[in-house]
């Protein structure tokens, strides 16, 4: 009989107030759901995670349990709200979950990073095997060299991209010339301007990709300047105004402008020409899409191309355990080139690259393909 259990997992402190809810902060708890066959021994468990998505009801959990392995879906402390997300704290949450599962009697843990979880689980395993990060990119706790981070026994990067900072930069609107005015645009770098395509020329794509990276770096330079200014203007804790604020929120416009959303010849696949939130022009500005609101410190940890550590191609060379990369050839968010980039970064031969033909990012309308992905994961976990 397949059962589902809610797991209350002790949460390690992150050293800052970065969760809005006092109830969540003071509870000292993160949550996971565990699906398992009551008749099966507690041998292997698959832990599925993401930096901010609510995976308590992840679509793969029941299938994995029915196929013979226990499956847990983890919600980090930042579930549903990544405006102040610190990747290094997410690493602490994964460590707490693995320790908890081992305490329940599971001998082997297969860590699955789904979607934006790919870069995170690669960061986790690299730090579990070779800890070297003593602070966040902003210089804050946690010190991961002093954390208890039990290594996973294998990794799966499922429908995953290399990391939030990379995929975010690949979708930054290069035409925005004033961060406060999203419709003040450089016509020569506007992928939505008919004169530029689609189809896009190689010259336009080269200029566009360089401009995206330049924009990410301009924002990062501004962030570092803002943090320095906050430190300089701070009031001493003994003053009537209390401690100085050391972080601020800000808005980033135009975060769904990857040329792959409009031109099928860029990174060819069977995908539909859209985004996870609908047509690209509207998604580019909708508040609910990726990374429109962030804090200074979270930007460095989560979105800065040069500062964020949660990048699978950079982390995987330090990983010794088996790694499976699973991708869909109809995915409009994690592309075939992403899968190949991560696979090529694995430094050993205990690796596997699996294509699921016809699968989009969420297997919409295709539960049979989601089941196929789970079959591949279970097969990998059993080897």
From TrEMBL:
Gene source species: Phytohabitans maris
InterPro entries: AB_hydrolase_fold
Name of the featured protein: Alpha/beta hydrolase
Domain of life, source organism: Bacteria
Gene3D superfamilies recorded: alpha/beta hydrolase (3.40.50.1820)
